[in-house]
Structures are given as structure tokens and as C-alpha cells.
Specification:
Distance between the termini: 27 Å
Number of domains: 1
CATH architecture: 3-Layer(aba) Sandwich
Structural class: alpha/beta
Shape: globular
CATH topology: Alpha/beta knot
Number of helices: 5
Mean pLDDT: 94
Number of strands: 5
């Protein structure tokens, strides 16, 4: 199984990228992990058209048999242990998994409809680049939980 985070935008601030890279490296010990970035629709930022443009890029990166999990504030909230159990089930299912994070305007209806599950990292609104860091850290934590390693306390 391949585990991917497919996300809109890049971290130009330099705040999150080093931590994301560290957790991505750690995740690589447990699974084939990949971070895929698609460009933000800056020309139409803040409009429905931006979400639609980003949706085209996101959907193009998803495989036809890939399990898609959309990150959305209206999704299910899982504990770290529940996420680990979900990851275990995904692994047993044998399909590749893509967790999709939208841009600052969120995900379009088309991406949400493509998703088999919807996950909320928090009921609070997170900057999409911060959400990426939280997600990658939680995926790493899930792997350590599944292996019974001491990272999760």
C-alpha cells in the first residue's frame, strides 16, 4: 500500500516544511509515503472558481482505484488511536490511500464526492499548511501505535 498526502500549495514561509519533511522521512520507515503538491489557484483566490481549478489539479493526481480521504472541517473527528485503527484497515484492504487537503478555500464538491471518507483534524479552522503538518505527524503517530512503539504516550 502507498500512503499519500495530496495537498494544494507550498509552504513559502519555511515554517512547516522542515517538520513535514522530518515526519515524511519517519513515515517512510513504515509505508511507502509520498507528499504531492498541486499549485494554488492564486488568480481567482477567494472565489468558487479557485476551488474548482484546484479540484481539477487534485483529481488529476488521484488514481482510479485509490481510496480517497478528504480533509474537511465537517468530517469525522478521530482520536490518534482511531486513526491508527483506520490506517490498519486501509493497509489490510491493500489499496493505495490518498489523503487530500484543499487550499485556503477548502475542497470543492467534486473532490468531496470522490472521497470515500471525510476526516476533520479539528473543529477549529487550521491553515491548510498547518493541517498538512498535523496530518503527517498523526500518520506517523498512527504507525507507531500500530507497532507498539513508545512515541504515542
Amino acid at each position: 500500500m502507498r500512503l499519500r498526502v495530496v495537498a494544494v500549495g507550498r509552504d513559502r514561509s519555511g515554517l512547516y516544511a522542515p517538520a513535514i519533511e522530518e515526519y515524511a522521512k519517519r513515515l517512510g520507515r513504515y509505508a511507502r509515503f509520498e507528499l504531492v503538491e498541486v499549485p494554488e489557484a492564486r488568480k481567482h483566490a477567494g472565489t468558487a472558481q479557485a476551488k474548482e481549478e484546484e479540484a481539477v489539479s487534485l483529481l488529476a493526481k488521484l488514481g482510479p482505484r485509490e481510496r480517497v480521504v478528504a480533509l474537511d472541517e465537517r468530517g469525522a473527528e478521530w482520536t490518534s488511536v482511531q486513526l491508527a485503527e483506520r490506517v490498519r484497515r486501509w493497509t489490510e484492504g491493500g489499496r493505495d490511500v490518498a489523503l487530500v487537503i484543499g487550499g485556503s478555500d477548502g475542497l470543492s464538491r467534486a473532490v468531496l464526492e470522490r472521497a470515500e471518507e471525510t476526516l476533520a483534524l479539528s473543529r477549529m479552522t487550521l491553515a491548510h499548511r498547518l493541517a498538512r503538518l498535523v496530518l503527517v505527524e498523526q500518520l506517523y503517530r498512527a504507525m507507531t501505535i500500530l507497532r507498539g512503539e513508545p512515541y504515542h504516550k
